[in-house]
Amino acid sequence: MTNLSRRHWLALAGAGAASLALPGCTAGSRTISAPAARVIPTGASGPVPASAGGPWPIDWTVGDVRITKVLDVVEPFDAARAYPGAPLEAFAANADWLPAHFYDPARKAIIFSFHSYLVRTAGLTMIVDTCWGEDTPLRARQHHGRWLENLAAAGVRPEHVDVVTCTHFHADHVGWNTRLRDGRWVPTFPRARHLFNATEIAQLEASVEAGTTPPAVYEQSVQPVLQSGHVIRLDGGYDVARGVRIVPSPGHSPGHQHVEIASRGRRAVLSGDLVHNPIEIRHPEWTKVFDQDKGAARATRTRFIESHTDVDVTLFAAHFAGPTAGRIVSSSGGRRFRPLGD
């Protein structure tokens, strides 16, 4: 991914970004040993470190809610490009809690996991984010169908899904909203209500209309779902089911939202792209190339990290590789991410 052009990053963002693109949880009920269908070491800059593959948990429970990671692909990304101007020696300084499944020091690359979260509780099967898809921008003919295979391995078929929500409309979060069938893009989840943020929809449509964002992501992964009539446009928080709530968290994109879970006294948050790599727990002030409104994203990220430090809330980030789930804790050098089980 490190050799993408500015034009490709614009396509990746799908929304006109300037340069783009907790003990509260019982972990490890099921683990994987990195078979090819689950962890796919690909990417323009070479394979990810072997340790990024696992075995790692893919299932967790939060009270009565079951959370399953549905993996698409794991790839490295040049840290200097992700955090322009940042003092990258901070990775080495924090190597004791930033192992190779988070950062590859040989290549100076952060490790991205592209995955969805499958949320299941009584009467609800919900998917949070839908990764890259197939035959979509930047991903044509790559890892064809593996995400659907991993969804099936979790015991879910597209027609079983009740709710789909995308934390935002960047290409790596909306791809499996649709599938190509007989030359047409059609919704992958025919029964599902799709809970999309109204501001996110409006901003993407406006930027496509103005010509500041390439139309492919919208036309392939968003518009067909809007036309299906199965979209609920959210303007603020939304209770999906008992203990499952969608909460606005703008900055990374205008309508970014995350998911909060509370069940039987346990709490978790599926944070979307509020944070991309655990280094941001220590350094929330770093500017990220991925954020559309960098000042707002930094402020939202800082508030989020401060309010979730040393509390009984499990963090499930959209791109943390390796063990994925953990807590934000205080340490002698500042805040850090502690995976469950450490």
List its salient traits.
single chain; alpha+beta; Metallo-beta-lactamase, Chain A; 8 helices; disordered N terminus
Question: How would you portray this structure in words?
Answer:
The chain is α+β, with helices and mostly antiparallel strands and 342 residues long. It has one domain: 4-Layer Sandwich (Metallo-beta-lactamase, Chain A), CATH 3.60.15.10. Helices cover 20% and strands 30% of the residues. It contains eight helices and 18 strands. Strands 1, 2, 3, 4, 5, 6, 7, 10 and 11 form a nine-stranded mixed sheet that branches. Strands 12-13-14-15-16-17-18 form a seven-stranded mixed sheet.
Can you tell me the CATH superfamily?
Ribonuclease Z/Hydroxyacylglutathione hydrolase-like
Tell me, what is the CATH class? Answer: Alpha Beta
Number of structural units classed as domains: 1
Q: Tell me the CATH architecture.
A: 4-Layer Sandwich
Q: Indicate the overall shape.
A: globular
Counting DSSP E segments of at least 2 residues, the number of strands comes to 18
Order of helices and strands: HEEEHHEEEHEEEEHHEEEEEHHEEE
List the total number of helices: 8
- Average pLDDT, all residues: 85
Give the amount of beta strand, in percent: 25-35%
Radius of gyration: 18 Å
**How many angstroms does the end-to-end distance come to?**
30 Å
Biggest sheet layout = 9 strands, mixed
